[in-house]
Amino acid sequence: MKAMFSNGARDAGILLVFTVAFTALMAGAYLLTRDTVQRNEAEARASQIRAVLPAGSFDNDLLADSRALPKADAVKLGAADSSHVYLAKKSGQTVAAVLEAVAPDGYAGQIKLLVAVARDGQALGVRVVAHKETPGLGDYIEAAKSDWIHQFDGKSLSAPPAERWNVKKDGGAFDSTAGATISPRAVVRAVKTTLEYVNENRQRIFE
Amino acid sequence: MISKQEANVIIQNSIWKQNAGVVQILGMCPVLVMSSNIVNGVSLGLATSLVMLISGAAIASMRQFVPNEIRTPIFILIIAALVTVVDLLMNSYMHGLYVVLGIFIPLITTNCIVLARAEAFASKNGVAQSALDGFFMGIGLTGVLAVLGALRELIGKGTLLSGIDLLFGPAAKSWVIYVVPAEQHYQFLLAILPPGAFIGLGFLIAGKMALDRRAEARARAQTAKAEIQAA
Amino acid sequence: MKTSPFVAQPMPLQTVMLKVVTALVPGILLAVWAFGIGVLVQIALAVAVALATEAACLKLRGYPVKPFLLDGSAVVTACLLALSIPPLGPWWLAVLGTAVAIGLAKHMYGGLGQNTFNPAMIGFAVLIVSFPAQMSRWAAPLALAQPDLGALAQIAYIFTGHLPLAFDAVASATPLDAVRTGLLQHLTLADIFKAPLFGVAQQWIAAGYLVGGLYLWQQKVIRWRLPLAFLGGLGLTALVFWLVDSEHYASPLFHLFSGGAMLGAFFIITDPVTAPTTPLGQLIFAALAGLLAYLIRTLGGYPDGVAFAVLILNIVGPFIDQYTQPAVFGRKKKGAKA
What we know:
The structure holds 3 protein chains of 3 kinds. By secondary structure, chain A is of the alpha+beta class. Chain A is built from 4 helices and 5 strands; from the N terminus they run αβαββββαα. In chain A, a hairpin with a 2-residue loop joins strand 2 and strand 3. The mean pLDDT of chain A is 87. Chain C is mainly α. Chain C has a domain of 161 residues. Chain C is built from 16 helices and no strands. The two termini of chain C are 38 Å apart. Chains A and B meet through helix 1 of A and helix 4 of B.
């Protein structure tokens, strides 16, 4: 009995020593890499946002000039509960806003978007950041797969007129591929909603 | 410390005879998911090899302090800690690739082949032997990942080495080999999606067996011939 | 199709296969009526490739070619696959799909009677996963098509991809797709069903398969368990969803007569090689396939779920068999009190 107890105590002690030693190793590695990792992650996020804005159109730190939107606004943009807006500034002047929007009605669930809107309500660029559309069918909404998403550059609610904010199959102004219209339809609708939201809340977003 | 002959036996065993991917069939999950192209496959394979090299050496050097009853938790602790370190280092120095490999770097911890070698080899052998065994087991796995990745990429997209810019920067984009010209938008999705991984791995296992069987038949024919000559 | 043990003299395989092909005729005729000559072109292509692949595989494996080639099983596989392909799909869909079905799903698993998976469904799955765009471009039924496509134009389109007009002009969603799309556009089911001649063609074709299936049952080629359990599993699941929310889930009747449900129930799930052999096992197998087919076609990323459901259940088939072995005569069931 005693031997068994002392064996158990010895094992626990050894386990403890190993745990402390290897936790120290991990902690060391963490401290060593912490700053780089944080910088990389911020950079990855920033480059995603930068992609929707025309190059050279801003000179601020996009992540620093961002804020969370109130829940009611996030819901208007299609998100379940939270959405952020990033402001692009040139010489201290806000020139555009990048909003996180969600198209809730993709073929297989939500399509997450970043939409850049200029002060005058014009869409500057749109990117799909996450989706579950059928590979090879609905995934041409991704910038990596095709140029489709660039159609939105320079569009606004007046050009094309609001009633033509739809895919060509439904009499709208936007292209889509035969047999795969659900995903583009969802994206077109979500971008339109985002532009409408910006129009209604211009003051609050840009000032 | 280790004779050349012994090293050769270990290397041969690790890369071919007991290949992790097509003979032991361990660590299927990362093999199947990360073999959609050569770059992903080889990167994950090398990361695994590195972890196995260090874990083999670490476990072999500490094995005399590890009581038999609690060896498994300690091995896992060592492996998990090493994987975490590799994960952090990759996150900070190869971020693009880190994003692509994603969850599969931390999951090296649960890759059976790592613990299997710790248990079956490193806990019973010397430091140099264990490091060698771990590393070349990883290299054997990397080989499978490379071949499977090449197959899937070639059949699925008509390219080789796509995504290499994640390793060597944007300048490397021109290194991608387009076997089918890029303008044609060739695509055979089955090969790139998970079912392609299963089918491809099946073909590789069958291929390995066929090669072994042929070698065996040849060896048998040779011994038979030798016996006849002797007689 | 009879399963072991054979007490009476079994029907020769060739006769069985001939009856299966005969049973497909009403469905094929209705499909030709609805979609035109393209259906026959796809069948001809698939049958030719199936026979060629079969012969090549038999030769490579060192089997006698002629008896196996004439057993008709490859022809049945080819017909089932061809009927699942859009009638105006490019020619290489049928060619590739059939080659995969016969070469990979049948012969690599050991040939006739050895395959784990239903070959036609493997061919279909490979096609829909690899070429979802081509596989979901269905032309409108001829009754709807404006302008009408002649037989020559159809054949030319299958082989060259050239159409005198944009494909969009003759394209039409299948009923399953129309419902899915309409619901995502926030239409009500009532509105979707109001579309002119909505789904009429596909539902008539499904009825044709039903007639053929009943003929097979009457001829004792298939038993009632598999088809009934499959349709029951699909129908009951649809009924539950429909009762809970009839605005957003179509009726059981719609689901039974859409997509691959009828073809699957009588011609695919009844494949004696890939289905379990015990009576209880067959009921479980087919009912689960029906349930899964409903879930995949309603909630998944692909237009129909019958093929995937059958393939997934094929994996579990042997397992179901093992656990549903009837007790040996004279012995008590496990767990029964002594």
